[in-house]
Write a structure and sequence with these properties.
single chain; alpha+beta; seven-stranded antiparallel β-sheet; 6 helices; 30% strand; globular
């Protein structure tokens, strides 16, 4: 029997109570800066059992301004910004070289929460990028050594052969230098925290950076 996409869509629920808890959010008590609130919400997502809460959507644009989006891993968040990494030669790396501005999106359905950020992106120094790479797992290191990210692939057999050699290298040399590996920091201009509500009275708190601090305002859902 052929799958009917529209029937499947109509059968689904958003924030089903057996899977989701919608906690209250009082924006009046939110901190003056977004980072402490992000850290608190991230910890609560982990505690709630949200699968892979450290994954996020990364949106970039090409030289013509056409958007692109993919899922990547958060490598950290501090005063330097929210951090992620990739090869500078990959599609997203090339985008960030020509248009160094991006957006990030987190979605944690276990709590009905989203966090959206956007801002300029800067590449970390090579020493910091290599330290980031060497702190990762053997599998992540092998993937970085495989290289050629976003380039056309001739066959899965070619991938298997190259990947096997990369795994061997990663196990033999735990701290190899991969010149194209780049750690990026996004210090946001804007951060929005979204808390879902069963009655669709979603709470949206927006932070905007000023010269010296942050301003906050509520947004209509």
């Amino acid at each position: 029997m052929a799958t009917d996409l529209h029937e499947l869509l109509r059968s689904l629920r958003v924030w089903a109570p057996e899977h989701t808890t919608l906690p209250p959010f009082t924006p009046e008590t939110a901190p003056a800066e977004p980072l402490p609130l992000f850290t608190e919400w991230f910890a609560e997502a982990v505690q709630a059992g949200q699968p892979e809460p450290h994954t996020m959507s990364l949106a970039t644009s090409d030289p013509d301004g056409n958007p692109d989006v993919r899922t990547v891993m958060l490598h950290g968040a501090d005063r330097t910004g929210w951090s992620f990494a990739t090869h500078v030669t990959s599609r997203k790396g090339r985008h960030l070289t020509t248009r160094p501005y991006a957006a990030l999106g987190f979605y944690w359905p276990a709590l009905g929460r989203q966090i959206r950020l956007r801002g300029p992106v800067t590449a970390a120094p090579s020493t910091e990028s290599q330290a980031d790479l060497h702190a990762r797992s053997t599998g992540a290191l092998a993937a970085a050594l495989t290289g050629n990210q976003s380039a056309p692939l001739g066959s899965l057999a070619e991938l298997a052969t190259t990947s096997e050699a990369a795994w061997t290298e990663a196990q033999r040399t735990p701290a190899p230098r991969v010149p194209t590996w780049t750690l990026y920091h996004l210090p946001p201009d804007e951060v929005e925290f979204f808390q879902g509500d069963q009655q669709r009275r979603h709470v949206r708190l927006s932070y905007r950076r000023t010269d010296e601090s942050w301003t906050r305002c509520l947004l209509w859902p």
